[in-house]
Amino acid sequence: MGAIAENLARIRDMVPAGVELVAVSKFKPIADVIEAYEAGQRDFGESRVQEILEKIPLLPADTRWHFIGHLQTNKVRSLIGKTYLIESVDSERLLELIDSESVKAGETTRVLLQVHVAREETKFGFSPDELLEYFKARKFEGLAATHIAGLMCMASNTDDTGQIRSEFALVADLMRKIRESLPQLRGFDCLSMGMSSDWPIAVEEGATSVRIGTAIFGNR
Ligand SMILES: *Cc1c(COP(=O)(O)O)cnc(C)c1O
Fold first, then answer.
1. Ligand 1 contacts CB of residue 212 (under 6 A)
2. Average pLDDT over every residue of 77-89
3. Is 125 near ligand 1, meaning CB less than 6 Å away?
4. Residue 186 and residue 128: Cα distance in Å, rounded?
5. For 151-183, how does the pLDDT look when each residue is reduced to its tens digit (9 = 90+)?
């Protein structure tokens, strides 16, 4: 077994049943992605539009591509119809653009809304208040071709596990609040949080999907 297949097997053993594992293959050559695919992995995460568009045709059609990077508005159109899930929708403006481009293309796009909870200013996303406001105002009802399937977040890049845990807990709590206040929301059940360094904490706090790169493919 190659190193990637071994890493995958080890991590799959640790990730509880019912938690989806997204293998983050960004910056990694296609041979590595294929090794993971051949080891049974189907969900892959990429953070750059050009790179994901190059890789998509090189993998079998049952590969599920997750876009997880900051998506510039001028690149939205090229991504529509290509992804299983766009996890990193970080503004209302981007969401509306995804929706209008999806309508034009005759596609339905599944997305997660990214929540900004980390200490770093550099990270993107809706603030918790903006997110609650978005749902309270029922703006999602105006979407014609976009399905909001849940929330995504990145915790602070820190050794302080208490801090990381509290950020994951905050997003899990936001998810609960939104679901409780809008019981009619359908298919709003994906909570994507946790990376190589912090995914066990994320799972303990309720993640239903983890995005793991380095621990599978090695350092970038
Ligand atoms: C790169 C990246 C990951 C994976 O990070 P690792 O530390 O390599 O596991 C997860 N989520 C997002 C949004 C990323 O950009």
1. yes
2. 98
3. no
4. 21
5. 999 999 999 999 999 999 999 999 999 999 999
pTM above 0.85, yes or no: yes
- Measured between its terminal Cα atoms, the distance across the chain in Å is 21
Q: Is there a contact between 165 and 197 (Cβ–Cβ < 8 Å)?
A: no
Axis-axis angle for helices 128-136, 161-181 (nearest 10): 10
Determine the atom of ligand 1 nearest the C-alpha atom of 214.
8
User: Which residues lie below 8 Å from residue 191, measured CB to CB, with a gap of 6+?
Assistant: 150, 151, 152, 171, 172, 175, 206, 207, 208, 209
Neighbours of 116 (CB within 10 A): 19
Q: Is 26 in the pocket of ligand 1 (CB under 6 A)?
A: yes
Integer Cα distance of 218 and 93 in angstroms: 35
Give the tokens for residue 154: 């990145």
Would you say the CB of residue 66 lies under 6 angstroms from ligand 1? no
User: Average pLDDT over the chain, rounded to whole?
Assistant: 97
Ligand 1 center–CA 24 separation, angstroms: 6
213 lines ligand 1 (CB under 6 A): yes
**213 Cα–ligand 1 center, Å:** 6
